Amino acid sequence: MSSRLVGVGVGPGDPELVTVKGVNALRAAEVVVVPVMDTGERGRAEATVLHYVPAEKVVRVVFALNERTDRARREAAWDAAGERVAALLREHGSVAFATIGDPNVYSTFTYLAQTVGELVPGTAVETVPGITAMQDLAARSGAVLTEGTEPLTLVPVTAGAAVLKDALNGPGTVVAYKFGRQAAEVAEALRETGRLDDAVWGSALGLPEESVRAAAELDGGPLPYLSTLIAPARREGVRGGKL
I want to staple 86 with a disulfide (CB 3.0 to 4.6 A). Which of 9, 13, 119, 198 is the partner? Predict the structure, then answer.
């Protein structure tokens, strides 16, 4: 029987946003792996998972989630994490990997699945979709992501504020992920492109420390790394105008 690795999206932090299919996948797996930083604190994925499976079923695996500069250290951490999950697959056969958001959207699962596939040939890899931060922020703020024929552009600001500015100069709604450390540059890009007034940002969605605010309130100070921004499309206010 082949090993089975399932990436399960557990949403942005609110345990009520895990899908029924996601809960079933977590409970069906023999082991549930959750990523943690080398500093050891409990992450959002782990906190969410523990609402649905017993702690003795959860295995914490260290990933270099906060390593941005030392490539060698990051690669070594990835190799170690891949080896750990591969060992769990050889032992248990069925492993779920819990990731915040969706496993196919800027997720550590993508890299893990590739590494494990090389270490344990024949491993069946599956994913269970999860609610994304942009969907949750849209619901909590009332921002409409798309209407009619509008495009939707998703930008990780870790790629640089210039990439975000190019997107803001284009049509449709723009969503920015991971912009907390570059909040000042993001605010400036919104002002320069005339997209500031309707934009909203949020962090720690669904958690006690949740913050959902107008982007116009950005003061240039640092925000949580996983902050999300929505700059809605420019709309004329005519119902169905873009259908």
Answer: 119
Interval 109-167: pLDDT, tens: 998 999 999 999 999 999 999 999 999 999 999 999 999 999 999 999 988 888 999 99
Angstrom distance (rounded) from CA 242 to CA 71: 46
In three-state form (DSSP H/G/I as H, E/B as E, the rest C), the secondary structure along 93-144 is CEEEEEECECCCCCCHHHHHHHHHHHHCCCCEEEEECCCCHHHHHHHHHCCC
Dihedral angle of Cα 87, 39, 183, 101, to the nearest 10 degrees: 30
Question: Look-up: residue for tokens 């909203």?
Answer: 200
Tokens read off for 40 = 């050891």
For the entire predicted model, the pTM comes to 0.90
